[in-house]
Design goal:
CATH superfamily of the largest domain: Response regulator
Distance between the termini: 51 Å
CATH topology of the largest domain: Rossmann fold
Strand order of the largest sheet: 2-1-3-4-5
Oligomer: single chain
CATH class of the largest domain: Alpha Beta
Number of strands: 7
Largest sheet: 5 strands, parallel
Order of helices and strands: HEHEEHEHEHEEHHHH
Shape: globular
Structural class: alpha/beta
Number of domains: 2
Helix content: 25-40%
Number of helices: 9
Length: about 260
């Protein structure tokens, strides 16, 4: 009852804003998520609820996204499927994002098959989670990048292309970590690479960085060449150190790049 009352009070304050709802049973994580989202997504009214049943109080609102926390539960858990069905009934025009303690491919696939448009693991850095939510809010789909046959590298810290001075390229076969300077990429290429890591398409990268799509495509081609990659996904993986570096097959004039 308190949950519904608190949500109703917030509704009176900004009825003109589109709504994003976070459904998290635990008070502490729910409050932390609420504070972050209100700071980062100020153009939305952010509501927090302990259960999906409280969505009844939003029936007259423009709910754009419901973020449902499922913790360790599998997607086919009856309570999760019941919650997804209730969200679809109460907010038929809203996208749904799942917040899960898992990021394995079967779990992600099961969520996507049920119409979920965003899959956020609790292991994600907050800036990537926010970017993923923004992508879903503009009609996109965010999910962990499937990497067949590749395991997470223990204690490997991926580069932050927005500001770190160093990145690391890992040779898994030899078990050797080689230091590499991110100055191989220009500052603008580093920004584009950071957006590629979020899985954003060229159009959204262009809008976010205030560039033309053709300029974004040019930067991606340069990134792929410098990473000796055949496509954008491979470029991200090489930069993160999950693929061994190969010969630079795509020096200028060596042939067309793919998937830019």
């Amino acid at each position: 009852m308190d949950d519904i009352t608190n949500s109703s009070k917030r509704l009176d304050g900004s009825l003109h804003l589109p709504v994003l709802v976070i459904v998290e049973p635990l008070l502490l994580p729910r409050t932390c998520i609420l504070n972050v989202l209100r700071r980062e997504l100020a153009e939305f009214e952010i509501l927090d609820m302990a259960t999906v049943e409280s969505l009844d109080c939003t029936s007259t609102r423009d709910v754009r996204l419901v973020v449902l926390s499922i913790a360790d539960k599998p997607i086919d858990d009856p309570s999760v499927e019941g919650s997804l069905a209730f969200v679809a009934e109460c907010c038929p025009n809203a996208a749904v994002a799942i917040l899960s303690n898992h990021d394995d491919e079967p779990t992600v696939q099961a969520a996507m098959q049920r119409g979920v448009r965003g899959f956020l693991s609790t292991s994600l850095p907050i800036e990537i989670a926010i970017a993923g939510l923004r992508l879903v809010l503009v009609g996109g789909v965010y999910r962990p990048l499937p990497v067949a046959g590749m395991n997470r590298i223990p204690d490997f810290e991926p580069p932050d292309a927005r500001g770190l001075a160093r990145a690391y390229l890992v040779n898994e076969g030899a078990g050797v970590t080689i230091e590499r300077s991110v100055t191989d990429l220009t500052p603008r290429e580093q920004q584009v690479l950071a957006e590629l890591e979020l899985g954003l398409p060229n159009k959204l990268i262009a809008a976010k960085l205030n560039l033309s799509e053709s300029t974004v495509k040019m930067h991606i081609q340069h990134i792929m060449r410098k990473c000796a990659a055949h496509n954008r996904t491979e470029a991200v993986l090489r930069w993160r150190g999950r693929l061994p570096a190969q010969g630079r097959d795509h020096e200028p004039g060596a042939g067309p790049m793919q998937e830019t």
